[in-house]
Amino acid sequence: MSTPDTEKTLSVRDLRVRYGEREILHGISFDVPRGETLVILGGSGSGKSTLLRTLVGLQPATSGEVWIRGQDIAKLSEEDLDETRKKIGLSFQGGALFGSMTVGENVCLPLREHTQLEESTIQIIMRLKLEQVGLAGFENYMPSQLSGGMKKRAAVARAMAMDPEILFFDEPSAGLDPIIAAGIDNLILKLKKAFRMTIIVVTHELASAFLIADSMLLINKGDIVAHGSREEMEKSTHPRVRQFLDRVPEPEVAEEMDYLQMLTGEAPPRAL
């Protein structure tokens, strides 16, 4: 059995995940130092969402180890896993706010479910968390009254309610316009600086990745292609890294674009 490195908030060793006969993650390993931000990059179907679900204990590993806070969560009982999850915050891609609850009630929910705090204390914490994400005074709003960016911020406030040691983000900029997305990126930077927490971000947004990351991990078809600093990734000559960073389409996609150009006599529109 591996011994966890106490300087690492998260350590993954030979992690494999299968859905039936199909193996999604093929024995991957990496570490995340305490207080750093790791950005996990990858295209659709790369396995990055499965990796995130496995890291937070929502998807069981087929084999391998996932060490968080000195414990291999792949080996924990459900009761012990629930205790570990209390120190993990997760901001879902769409926010996943409960539409029948106010913003304040959404943020209060983890505290009411997992602590014995007085209601007055819960209310104080809730207002503090909303203030930290720039939503002071919005506790009585319903999620339907919020913009997309505000919903993301409210989800972050809820994820932070239990003062997690490690905070996970699933596609934090997805569906947002560039200005609002930049605001979410700046919020992530502010949280890291203020609370010195370890942050794991799953995204395919390159602009966000290069702004917030201390290190990056590129996953493709269940394998780690590259893992390094922003500078190392930017200078990498690995073909798959260059394809992803330079936004070069797969051969079959390029052929379709060439065929379209031949039919129309015009160059097809390029993705922004």
* Cα separation of the termini: 47 Å
So what's the oligomer here? Answer: single chain
- Per DSSP E runs of 2 or more residues, the count of β-strands stands at 10
> What is the SS-derived class?
alpha/beta
Query: What is the total domain count?
Result: 3
- Average residue-wise pLDDT: 87
Number of helices: 10
| Rg (C-alpha, Å) | 20 Å
The name of the CATH superfamily of the largest domain reads P-loop containing nucleotide triphosphate hydrolases
Describe the protein.
With 272 residues, this protein is an alpha/beta fold. It folds into three domains: 1-87 and 165-229, P-loop containing nucleotide triphosphate hydrolases (Rossmann fold, 3-Layer(aba) Sandwich); 98-163, no CATH class; 237-272, no CATH class. The protein has ten helices and ten strands. A six-stranded mixed beta sheet has the order 6-7-8-3-9-10, sandwiched between helices. A four-stranded antiparallel beta sheet has the order 2-1-4-5, with helices on one face. A hairpin with a 2-residue loop joins strand 9 and strand 10. Helix 3 (103-114) crosses helix 4 (119-132) and helix 4 (119-132) packs across helix 5 (148-159). The N and C termini lie far apart (47 Å). The mean pLDDT is 87.
